[in-house]
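Job type: complex structure
Entries:
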Amino acid sequence: MDTLFGVPVAALIGQVLIGLINGSFYSLMSLGLAIIFGLLHVVNFAHGVQYMLGALVAWVLLDTWGINYWWALLIAPVVVGLSGLAIERFFLRHLYHLDHVYALLLTVGMGILIEGLVKFKFGIGGQPYPNPMSGGVDLSVTFVPWYRLWVIGVALVVSLGTWYFIDRTKLGAYLRAANENPNLVRTFGVNVPRMLMLTYAFAVALAGFSGVMAAPIYQVSPYMGSNLIIVVFAVVVIGGMGSILGSILTGFGLGVIEGLTKVFYPEGASVVIFVVMILMLAVRPSGLFGRQP
Amino acid sequence: MSSMLYKYLWWLLVGLVLLLAPLVVYPLFMIKILCAALLAASVNFLVGYAGLLSFGHAMFFGSAGYITGYVLKTWTGDGLIGILAGVLVSAAIGWVTGLLAIRRQGVYFSMITLAFAQVIYFLALRLPFTGGEDGLQNVPRPSFLGLVETTDHQSLYFVVLAIVGLGFWFIWRIVNSPFGQVLTAIRDNEPRAMSLGYRVNRYKLIAFTLSAAIAGLAGSVKVIAFGLATLTDVGWGTSGDALLICIVGGMQTLWGPLIGAVLVIALEHMLVSVPELVQIVQGLVFVLVVMLFRKGIVGQWLAWWKSRQSSTHLPPATSEH
């Protein structure tokens, strides 16, 4: 069996795999957006920039101190998460009592500012990041690098873990309760403002984590975040931010659809997700897992 | 003194300043400000009076520019036809994208407009007539109805001023019309407007399409003046600039976009020798305004004026209009 639907099987599997990789990032990013939106009612327009920061921190760690990928996978999310903590504590928190538009605009401004600072300090060129896992597995039809499998596996574990934490644990229950009725949760003695701060920091750290994982696959460049985030927004529109599991599924699914489009109609690959978004808006405006319009 | 008279006074004052401006300021620089102001005004109209926050207005600005540029390069030397073509196309894009985007609300609406703008960006990069990475260059300066030539900067400036002035007047008329009142009602309380029997989505769609047409007008004028339509015009940065201008000048104010454009464009001009600082300064201004200065310059001034008036007249007027 060398061809399927008139395409070489190797190409098909290869593109599905690339689709799953892209889907991993769509998944992790839309998950983070959904968490922040669920609790803070803010769409974090800086999410792409924070993803880029994760990759950048990993690159700086390696370039300046020779700290390798595995340590970066731990350190970079902490650094990016702390920056998120500061943004929530000193900026976002003071805007909750206003129209949600202002918090959203703040994340837009923060994104522009951080991206500008990164461009100023590191230039606009991309930097390669070495692959931490050489070699791969030969599946007779195609060759699969270990690192790609690692990314897909980790993305699955992390996103499902996050879903489990929010949907199945006691702390997660507090989060969901605070989403429904923050004042009531406060009367039970839960420190809701701190919870909001930590939630934002966690989701931002998740973006940073995705950035580190992306560094060896894509180049580390100031634009990597803004290129990704618009696609992720379309993913979020398709899936809806109402369900964590829904975000994960939509992310992976759209990644695969994008990969398959590359096989069958390469020209359309860069817009296929937007086309799906348009179809979804026309047929089912509330999105796959959406509850509200 | 009626507040209406004050408003006309403002029109007169702003008009006078703008008429005299080319005596002291380079006309092309003023044109840049006027185009940015009109684009920001179209965004401001939508977010300020209809409550729809668009992140994709660059798609109307840019695509109208491409169309106008193409028409002037290949078909005709008449600026009016060029502008008309650009505005029509951007209004059509606005109608189609609006039809889909208004099916979702709030943040989803913003994300959808951003995604649509990205699609238009791809099209501008790929379609055969847009010139890809280079864009459309050397678009000839048109004449208008065979009466007015725009080859020298001075006369071009007055043509642009007339068109942009018309755009501002148009927005002002919409906002102060019964239609505008309904839009404001929808913004403030959509369920109530719906229960009063207004077809909310139709109003939103009309507002979105009008706003797209005005953004397109700004884009067409920009291409006529600078002879250049590029990917930057359709890029996210252009939409971001328009938003920045809106909040600096003051949302929900008529003249906010103009004042904001003067400041933001002047700021960018001052930083022209250190381009790598532009984005940092833009981001800083963005954050500072959102944190500390939410009403914007004109909004702040209006608030101050109101409080001054209500403190001199007794008893304090609670609602003037």
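Summary: Residues 215 and 288 of chain A are 31 Å apart (CA to CA). Chain A has a mean pLDDT of 86.
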